[in-house]
């Protein structure tokens, strides 16, 4: 299935429109907009050039990926879209079931009210029938006291009005019950439609997981030796470094107004997800020829991935080796990276605070088991995340 943008909206590297908007926002906050107009135009033009270059470089790198990597990319991006769609369907199902419960209770109340009104009407009709016999009328007219006669006749008139009111109440209860039952039927049909959509999406998900498995087999077949595996890992690291460098350069003109600078949060951050560290910063990889630039946290698929500090999303897309990757800018050259996600729930340009859920743990990027890859970078260079985390 082709990658669907609607669930993920515009999470791809469409950075240019975003940062144009962000730069305009920053400029609009200036104390003297008129005096800074010329400077603003120059900054905007420079920003456009930088971001166009980012997109061009990434496009060239994407074109160099082999077919198997492209297939993996499309399968995992599409899978992310389907999972987000399923999340929306689940929320819609919950809301529909809640409405159904309300309607069922309302229908039960309407039935109970209708039964009560019908019972009252039946009693009134029986009483009226009894009072309406000739013996009752003869008894009224035989009384000598005109006041007593008047009271009896007024009471009879009241009974007639009461009977009419009861009949109207029964009619209104019937109308309400019919409307409630119609709404209940409509919501039941709606629920059936939602469940059908969910079954379709789950079928799509199975197909996409199969496509992902096929792509991984092709990738494994293409790596016959350790040297080829090392070469691929180096290429992935170069691609990530290129992305970080280009983003760092493009973001220099866009300061972040933050209550607390990132540097002051050293030693006070929380881990982005709950899990066990399986790879640490600086630990050897690829037989000691490479080093880990971040940490790998083993966590359950679907677990929340949380931003570690204030900032804004500057990247939210698939990258070779990282799978579905989120990058958050924190100002002063600091970035945090979150890789191998199952899906991404934020968009480029979204502002986040510590603890904001930005994605969910997954195995994208070709991992065999779910987990989160986490990095912190300063000026494009990786630093040890463990030094920033609260002990």
How would you sum up this structure in a few lines?
The chain is built from 7 helices and 12 strands.
In whole angstroms, the N-to-C terminal distance is 45 Å
- How many domains? The number is 2
- The SS-based structural class is alpha+beta
Give me the count of strands: 12
Number of helices: 7
Write up this protein.
By secondary structure, the protein is α+β, with helices and mostly antiparallel strands. It folds into two domains: 41-222, Helix Hairpins (Orthogonal Bundle), CATH 1.10.287; 258-391, Distorted Sandwich (Glucose Permease (Domain IIA)). Helix content is 56%, strand content 16%. The protein is built from seven helices and twelve strands. The chain has helices at 5-8, 15-28, 37-64, 67-131, 134-141, 146-221, 226-250; strands spanning 276-279, 284-285, 290-291, 295-298, 304-306, 311-319, 323-331, 334-344, 351-352, 357-361, 371-378, 381-383. The strands form two sheets. Strands 1, 4, 5, 6, 7, 8, 9, 10, 11 and 12 form a ten-stranded antiparallel β-sheet that branches. A two-stranded antiparallel sheet has the order 2-3. The longest helix is centred in the middle third of the chain and has 76 residues, at 146-221. It is elongated, with a radius of gyration of 35 Å. The model is unreliable at 1-37 (pLDDT under 50).
């Amino acid at each position: 299935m082709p990658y669907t943008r609607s669930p993920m909206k515009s999470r791809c590297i469409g950075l240019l429109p975003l940062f144009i908007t962000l730069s305009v926002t920053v400029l609009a906050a200036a104390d003297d907009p008129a005096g800074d107009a010329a400077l603003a135009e120059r900054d905007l033009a420079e920003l456009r050039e930088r971001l166009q270059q980012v997109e061009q470089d990434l496009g060239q790198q994407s074109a160099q990926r082999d077919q198997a990597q492209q297939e993996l990319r499309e399968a995992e991006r599409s899978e992310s879209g389907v999972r987000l769609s399923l999340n929306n369907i689940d929320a819609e199902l919950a809301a529909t079931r809640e409405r159904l419960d309300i309607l069922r209770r309302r229908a039960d109340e309407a039935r109970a009210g209708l039964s009560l009104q019908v019972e009252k009407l039946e009693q009134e009709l029986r009483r009226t029938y009894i009072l309406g016999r000739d013996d009752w009328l003869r008894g009224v007219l035989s009384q000598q006291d005109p006041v007593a006669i008047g009271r009896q006749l007024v009471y009879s008139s009241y009974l007639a009005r009461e009977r009419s009111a009861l009949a109207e109440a029964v009619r209104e209860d019937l109308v309400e019950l019919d409307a409630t039952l119609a709404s209940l039927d409509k919501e039941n049909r709606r629920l059936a439609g939602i469940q059908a959509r969910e079954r379709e999406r789950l079928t799509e998900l199975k197909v996409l997981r199969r496509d992902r498995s096929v792509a991984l087999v092709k990738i494994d077949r293409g790596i016959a030796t350790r040297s080829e595996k090392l070469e691929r890992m180096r290429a992935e690291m170069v691609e990530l470094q290129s992305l970080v460098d280009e983003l760092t350069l493009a973001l220099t003109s866009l300061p972040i107004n933050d209550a607390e600078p990132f540097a002051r949060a050293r030693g006070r951050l929380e881990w982005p997800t709950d899990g066990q560290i399986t790879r640490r910063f600086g630990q050897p990889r690829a037989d000691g020829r490479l080093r880990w630039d971040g940490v790998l946290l083993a966590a359950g698929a679907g677990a929340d991935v949380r931003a570690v500090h204030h900032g804004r999303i500057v990247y939210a897309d698939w990258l070779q080796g990282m799978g579905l990757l989120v990058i958050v800018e924190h100002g002063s050259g600091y970035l945090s990276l979150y890789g191998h996600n199952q899906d991404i729930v934020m968009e480029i340009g979204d502002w986040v605070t510590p603890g904001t859920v930005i994605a969910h743990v997954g195995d994208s990027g070709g991992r065999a088991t779910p987990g989160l890859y986490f990095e912190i970078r300063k000026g494009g260079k990786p630093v040890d995340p463990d030094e920033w985390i609260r002990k």
